[in-house]
Amino acid sequence: MRNIILLSIICLLSFTSNLLSQSLDELELRYDNLRSVVEKDNLILDSLKNILENRAKQIENEKQKPNPDNEKVIKLMAGSVSLSNTIDDHQEELETDTKNLKQLSEMLEVKYSAKIDSLKLLKKSGKENFDKLDGEILLYTEKRLLISPQVDMLSFNPQKILEVDLKKAKTIEEKLLLKEYLSNALAEVNLLLSDVTKQSEEISEALTLQRKASKFLTETEFDRNVGIDRISRSSSQRTSLEISLSGKDNLTIADQINSYTLLLDQLNIFDKSEGVKTNKFNHKPGTTNFSLKDYSELLKEIRQRLNDYKLILANRIEQSR
Description:
Elements (H helix, E strand, L loop, with lengths): L1 H20 L2 H41 L5 H56 L4 H17 L11 H6 L8 H48 L4 H7 L16 H21 L24 H28 L2
Helix pairs in contact: 1-3, 2-3, 3-4, 4-6, 6-9, 8-9
């Protein structure tokens, strides 16, 4: 067991070392390729699970017949065992690829952040064209947004939080348990709020750069083609998240947005008539682009909700003192 753990650590360190030595273009290529593999494996796994579920229904239906075909049941069960093993193998491969994808994502985030910081320093020096630098900063900011992980939903039920009343605890032990429950929930809200705030601030910065880039293009309309080329392949000429939210990037950002929408739904437990309509935040690949402004509004709404729960939790804990 110790040797297995040691081997796993060595493999992880080797993988990380290889990533560190690779260029940004190489990392992006590996990330795109591995993401495609993960998406494909997820589809295959879902398909296999559906087949297994259908076979289970076939077996049950056959057993319910007045005169079941035992030979057919045996064959179906044997096939199900083989299929189940295949699913386990695919699941194991998917978990490994998902871990590696996360590792690549973290490495890319470090490189994008370093690139952005470098461009900002160059901008402060005044040695380069501001508009060109803003376009490049926006490009890498959007790239960093695209590799951001999906947000997790709260592990606790927000409705239950509102029902907790430490004053009604019958024993000291019960009061301590409830207080620990509230404290854990508060810690989780604080952590999530920190992540959402960071993402929100990053999008706000991207919006500012986007507006400046748009203004620059308007002012240089007489030579638009040259202007766009000078900004490289930056997102300055775009009005929504890269990469026009099309193709694989559309799928990626749609997953991120919808994960935030699910969290917003979870937090929307007050008077529904006064709550925000979350339907407008849902995004499906192939539909109208979801702009940075829309994304910003979504995160602001979530930040407000999280702050509300933070206040509630803090007050409930304070009541126990």
